[in-house]
Design brief:
By secondary structure, the protein is mostly beta strands. It is 6% helix and 39% strand.
């Protein structure tokens, strides 16, 4: 059936072409450019609207489906007529992923673990404020995710930073916001319930008499601040109410409050063998943190631990000793003998954590950003690291002797990867992580977590600690590696350099561009960065190499353009696309200073006019090797629906001989755009690499592949079975990055924050 239809379509196209040729030989039609144009367009529309697309599964035989094509018309720059592009055979591709131990399914490693409790049998219960795929609270066992605590997401709900369990229930800190006018039990408008929610051990909510919420499983403890600590002993549940400076005690079965007592700034809680409480007293201004000792009745006992910088988690091990997560510069788990006055008897992990030895290099015993510690009845040790500014989950289990037994990684959230051109894509970088790739391995097994590139102790002003970057460009400038990062709103471009001799694998803050802003206030509000100009946009360069923002390191401007997109070309020049008529800014690289920072200035900035076909420019990618410029945005022919700032536009155009002033496109292609403003099939991001132009849609996360030479569509990539044939929405302007390897293979990286990974497509060369 399919072959017969293909044959008929081929004959129809041939006959149409023959008729056009015959007609074009008449004297009148030879002189009629308008009619020639209309005939050519008619043929193009008929043929393309009966288009055939191939859906190529990576593990199955090819299947052919039929659907109407939105367009495959381009504009020829020679005579500016619309012509039909003959589609080339589809490209074979495979799907893989990086950044998460588990690549598909509802149970995968969550975005962050902010609290953790380890049961005697080695079951690990976790909690966090937010997980994009609704796994705020998970249950882990033997290196696997065995369940998620249900109903922690949506309906104004979220998790929290405390969790505990006994032989019957799991208890987690959570928040419940208002839902307006509803018949269910929700807080009134403008109020948030800070609650403890009870679950059975399988992860299902466990209601109780007088429980609150729609299923009566919530215990409201405050409307002012969240629960910061939880612990159980016998039939009692202890809850830290931070703002009230109270420890509240509840019956674990009835959930009725039994009593309370005062503790200033209470945090995490654990119970010792004598059934007394150890409580972290959080730092308060200039007052340092401590760990205090209380009886069950609330009497403060004389023992305390004060020789600690930043305790973030505590637990009692199988020997009755106190374990403390020290998240200060030591980055270790400390063990205290607490029979009498607490005495530190050992430490676990490399002193200095990830910054010991080669700074940033990942090793089994190098910890970073500790949020959870615990042991099981056999003495096995469990530690979670979150990095800094919520870099992602790194949950590890060690034997009592300190040997790594398993490791679960969930390192990606609102992030994308890019390849180091010098190593042919073997080295990949995201905003904080460095991966080493082995492309000979199976899908999901190719990536190896090599380094963590953020050091908050040496560089506390690192922009990654104060902002939320998500788009990555890796460049080699004069042979040296640099990392460029931008964010969801294209509001800045951050620059990082590397110096292995002084900083190992750590990316050193080197520079920063900021975007547009009103003339009467600083670009970034708050206390960071220090000494920033009081108004206007600016470029910062770390002139003295100390990674700090200082007064004499800013270059200022009052250009105030409406920002559209960033690009860094292979020479190191920075480009900025603006939503204005003179909408292109070019910052030629002025060299590299003695400290290793690339130099850019407003004095050398070039303003370039936006090609007339565009009325709202969004993305820009320039390639000096071929003097080719690729632009995307909304055009005069296909304008935006309102101020739809979150998409890449309605068309992509290629311009050759750009530096020579050419502004006539070699080709134009129409990319998916939903003119209703709902973004159902709108294009989120584009990337040009090697032979192809790639565009990914917002909600369907489908990658459209076009020939870079002709603009013809050659393939459409969809997530394969390796990642469950699914993806979340594309939320960021650089949600797709592509790289051509020396063997002709194209790597395509696509943001997938829903289930915490980066999807990687591999297109055979």
């Amino acid at each position: 059936m399919i072959n017969k239809l293909l044959t008929k379509l081929g004959k129809l196209r041939h006959e149409l072409n023959q008729q056009v040729k015959k007609l074009s030989k008449t004297r009148y039609l030879q002189k009629s450019k308008t009619l020639n144009f209309l005939l050519s367009m008619t043929v193009a529309v008929i043929v393309t609207n009966i288009g055939i697309t191939t859906d190529w599964a990576t593990t199955e035989t090819p299947t052919i489906t039929y659907k109407a094509s939105s367009t495959s018309n381009t504009i020829d720059s020679t005579n500016l007529r619309i012509k039909n592009n003959t589609k080339t055979p589809p490209l074979n591709y495979k799907t893989s992923w990086i950044g998460n131990t588990i690549g598909s399914g509802n149970l995968r490693i969550q975005n962050n673990i902010e609290a953790m409790y380890v049961a005697p049998d080695g079951t690990v219960y976790t909690n966090s404020h937010w997980d994009e795929a609704a796994m705020e609270a998970g249950i882990y066992k033997d290196g696997k995710v065995i369940a998620a605590l249900g109903d922690t997401h949506g309906w104004s709900r979220g998790g929290g930073k405390a969790v505990t369990a006994n032989s019957k229930y799991v208890y987690i800190a959570m928040t419940q916001g208002s839902r307006g006018d509803t018949k269910e039990d929700y807080p009134p408008e403008g109020t948030t319930w800070y609650s403890v929610r009870r679950y059975d051990l399988s992860g299902k909510p466990a209601p109780f008499p007088n429980g609150r919420g729609w299923d009566k499983s919530m215990l409201i403890t405050s409307t002012k601040s969240e629960v910061t600590g939880l612990a159980t002993v016998e039939s009692e549940l202890y809850v830290s109410d931070f703002t009230a400076n109270q420890i509240r005690v509840y019956d674990t079965e009835t959930m009725k409050e039994l009593r309370s007592f005062t503790v200033a700034n209470p945090g995490a809680i654990t119970i010792d063998p004598q059934k007394n409480l150890w409580i972290i007293q959080s730092k308060n201004g200039s007052k340092p943190a401590k760990i205090l000792h209380y009886s069950q009745s609330g009497k403060q006992l004389p023992q305390q631990i004060a020789d600690i910088v930043e305790p973030t988690a505590i637990a009692i091990n199988h020997q009755g000793k106190l374990l403390v997560a020290e998240n200060g510069p030591r980055q270790q788990m400390l063990t205290y003998d607490i029979k009498d006055q607490p005495v530190q008897v050992s430490s676990f992990g490399s002193k200095g954590g990830i910054y010991a030895g080669v700074p940033g290099e990942v090793r089994d015993l190098k910890l970073y950003g500790l949020t959870g510690v615990g042991t099981d009845a056999s003495g096995n040790i469990y530690i979670n690291s979150n990095g800094f500014n919520k870099s992602g989950t790194d949950l590890r289990k060690f034997s009592p002797s300190g040997k790594l037994m398993w490791r679960s990684l969930g390192l990606i959230f609102v992030d994308n990867a890019d390849a180091d051109p010098k190593t042919d894509g073997v080295d990949l970088f995201t905003k904080q992580e460095h991966y080493l790739m082995d492309y000979s391995k199976a899908a999901g097994k190719q990536w190896n977590y090599k380094a963590y590139t953020l050091n908050p102790f040496k560089y506390p002003q690192d922009p990654r600690l104060h902002t939320s970057p998500d788009g990555t460009f890796v460049r080699r400038i004069q042979g040296k590696p640099f990392l460029f990062l931008t964010d969801m709103y294209n509001s800045f471009l951050q620059i990082y350099r590397f110096n292995p001799d002084t900083d190992g694998k750590v990316a050193i803050p080197a520079g920063m561009f900021v975007g547009t802003n009103g003339a009467d206030k600083p670009f970034i509000t708050g206390n960071w960065p220090p000494s920033q100009p009081e108004q206007g946009e600016w470029i910062w360069r770390d002139r003295n190499g100390n990674g700090k923002f200082e007064k004499n390191e800013y270059d200022r401007s009052k250009d105030y353009p409406h920002l559209g997109g960033w690009w860094v070309d292979s020479k190191g020049d920075v480009w900025k696309a603006l939503r204005t008529e003179d909408g292109i800014r070019h910052y030629p690289l002025q060299g590299i200073d003695p400290k290793g920072n690339p130099i850019y200035s407003y004095g050398s900035m070039e303003k370039q006019t936006t090609p007339k076909i565009f009325n709202d420019l969004r993305r820009i990618e320039y390639f000096p090797e071929t003097d080719s410029m690729f632009l995307s945005g909304f055009t005069v022919d296909r304008p935006a629906f309102g101020d739809d700032a979150g998409v890449a536009g309605s068309e992509i155009a290629r311009f050759d001989n750009w530096s020579k002033g050419n502004r006539t496109p070699k080709w134009r292609i129409v990319i998916p755009y939903d003119s209703t403003g709902k973004r159902e099939v709108s294009t989120a991001a584009i990337s040009v690499a090697g032979d192809y132009v790639f565009a990914v849609t917002v909600k369907t996360a489908e990658v459209y592949v076009y020939s870079a030479k002709t603009g013809a569509q050659v393939q459409q990539l969809k997530p394969g079975p390796e990642v469950g044939s699914e993806s979340g929405w594309i939320d960021i302007p650089y949600g797709i990055r592509a790289f051509r390897r020396s063997n002709g293979e194209h790597l395509v990286f696509v943001e997938e924050n829903w289930k915490g990974k980066v999807i990687m497509y591999r297109l055979a060369g």
